[in-house]
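Incident review: delayed structure delivery

Summary: a single-chain prediction request sat in the queue longer than the usual turnaround. Root cause was a stuck worker, restarted by the on-call engineer. No data loss occurred. The affected request and its eventual output are reproduced below so the record is complete for anyone auditing the incident later.

Affected input:
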Amino acid sequence: MKDIVIAGIGMTGLGKMPERSVKDLSAEAVKLALSDACATVGDIEAAWFSNTRQQMLEGQNTIRGQIALRPLGFESIPICNVENACASGSSALYQAVTHIRAGMAEIVLVLGAEKMFFPEKRDAMFQAFMGGTDIYRLEEFTKNIEQTAIDMIPAELRNVDTGQRSFFMDSYAAQARLHMQTFGTTQAQLAMAAAKNHWHSTMNPLAQYQNDMSTEEVLNGRLISWPFTLPMCAPISDGAACAVVCSSSALKKLQKNGYDPKRAIKIRGIHLASGKNRAADDFANHIGRIAALGAYEQAGIDGQDVDVAEVHDATAYAEIQQIENLGLCEIGAGGAFTENGDSKLGGKTPVNPSGGLVSKGHPVGATGIMQLHELCTQLRGEAEKRQVENAKIAVAENGGGFYENEEAATVVTVLERQS
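Output delivered after worker restart:
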């Protein structure tokens, strides 16, 4: 297969931005990515646009990518709209990569943008998440979630209504309790993962939250769904990210504009997976592990070759689970890996140096591209205070939706520094 690279990438800062629109956020991210790649609008031969909320919260549907990109000068080229829950951004990249591999284009654009914070539509904001599961089986899924490892919940908290619960936080909480029951993972270890990411985010000027938190402060946060407190859960976020993706041979065209090919980051492997029927405690066949093994096979590596990772920590537990799925440690050892400091900057394999979703932010349709922004920054040696020393191989895991015991879609991407 031909070599494919990320030539340029850019992202907005993250936060709650009631004054900004999807089009506005998109324009900023596109401008940054084109500049980073020394590319022009005319160089782009096709584009993919990732978004999950605009149709529900703004009423703009069906042609969201065309609406975002046409005003920026993108005319006549193919523009595809991608929605695949929280894995939408990485799914858009997956499609762009296959397009280039098929010889349909040489230089393309992948854009993810999300406007999630609408203070006047609070109920709609949270209702929008419900389409990310099988609504025909919602009652069944909810019952299973409520009963999963229920004995792990302290008796005095089993019937407490926190007023902050949601179906997706409850589903992650059920998975966390099962992991705790099976492997002895502790609530304190979950808090350590979150605290580590809050610390990482203090070094990321684009993060939504940039305040350090101790493990104790995380544990003492407002209860959401046991074992999760608020600092263990990703926030509502607005933001956008964009990548210029091309074949390695197309870099010659960008070099004429002043591009340094040493800054190009090779996409060594990418795999999109859906789940399979399995027992809830069959962790070896988790969707994240399926996606990781597929990407690793393409890349010719295993988890022990990874220098830095960005994983989809919609909750602190999700990070521990994905550390295991990526083979950074054995299945069941994610809690200990975290407690030992192995996932922290300076540790064996730093995870989420950006601050992760729990602190950097989680604008759903843009999240997958934002993970790649952090990893490209790391592989280029441009991460400053949060730089992982000598990073050469990086991995991103981006999952979304919920089906039975796990996410409904997951993409794992392996990146490599060229020089």
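Verification: The chain has a mean pLDDT of 95.
Action items: add queue-age alerting; document worker restart procedure.
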